[in-house]
Amino acid sequence: MAAMVAVYSGLVRKTTRVVTAAVCLTEPGTHAVLWRRGCSQYKQLTSNEDLPLLSQFVSPFTGCIYGRHITGLCGKKQKEITKAIKRAQLMGFMPVTYKDPAYLKTLKYVT
Amino acid sequence: MPRYELALILKAMQRPETAAALKRTIQALMDRGAVVRNLENLGERALPYKIFTHNQRHTRGGYFLVDFYAPTTTVESIKEYLSRDTDVIRPNVVKHPLTQEVKPCEGIVPVPLEEKLYSTKRKKK
Asked: Is A33 on the interface with B (CB under 8 A)?
């Protein structure tokens, strides 16, 4: 992996720095997990009221839903949360392209 | 038991007009045989994104929650009626969240990887 990256960065001279910087963030073998929590904490998900909870799983810059390797949730709960986020976005409760600025600073584990 | 929940987003209007629109909606619900249980007002706030409906561009809306019991056959006609109403920006009929069962989640179950190390297939000789 590192050898391939070196070859590639040698070929493309303009974007050399960008490529090596992107690779340095996550090395193969260790995956970056932003936070881990037990699944049993989340009992019920309502799209209307649990907006601060659902906003935690959305990126503040792009509004993408974080994947399983970042949230650390089990299969069932990840699916439930994804469905609830998509439902809230469609129904007009949650913004799609960005994270609601009111919930930018909720770092507590909201149950 | 609360069966359906209507997440209604109405156009940002003056108070008497909003009241008239709500009255009209609930009257339509009751005409189709629904029993309205509760009406909640979540306030008037800015929409998360600009919504275009009925040849109009909306940035603000009044959010209302109506939970009601309704026969299963009339849900479609309710949705069709609400889509035709000009004052309604976005209607959504959902099954009421409190009626959903809550199953306890066991979390990520660790899988014994040693058994999967060697294949259990018998090689033909």
From this structure: no
A54 lies in some domain: yes
The percentage of residues in chain A with a pLDDT greater than 90, rounded to a whole number, is 6
Contact (Cβ atoms closer than 8 angstroms) between residue A13 and residue A48: no
Pairwise CB contact (< 8 Å): B105 & A95: no
In angstroms, the Cα distances linking A44 to A88, A95, B101, B104 are: 15, 21, 9, 10
Sequence-ordered list of residues with C-beta below 8 angstroms from that of A88, at least 6 positions apart, any chain: A47, A48, A51, A54, A94
CA distance B124 to chain A (A): 36
pLDDT single digits (tens) A72-84: 888 888 888 898 8
Distance separating alpha carbons of residues B92 and A57, to the nearest angstrom: 23
User: Per the domain annotation, does A108 fall within a domain?
Assistant: no
Does the model's ipTM exceed the 0.95 cut? Answer: no
Residue A27 lies in a domain: no
Inside any domain, residue A65: yes
Domain range enclosing A73: 48-91
CA A56/CA A71 separation, integer angstroms: 10
Nearest to A110 by CA among A32, A59, A35: A35
Tell me the chain A residues in contact with residue B107 when contact means C-beta distances shorter than 8 Å.
38-40, 74
Number of domains observed in the structure of chain A: 1
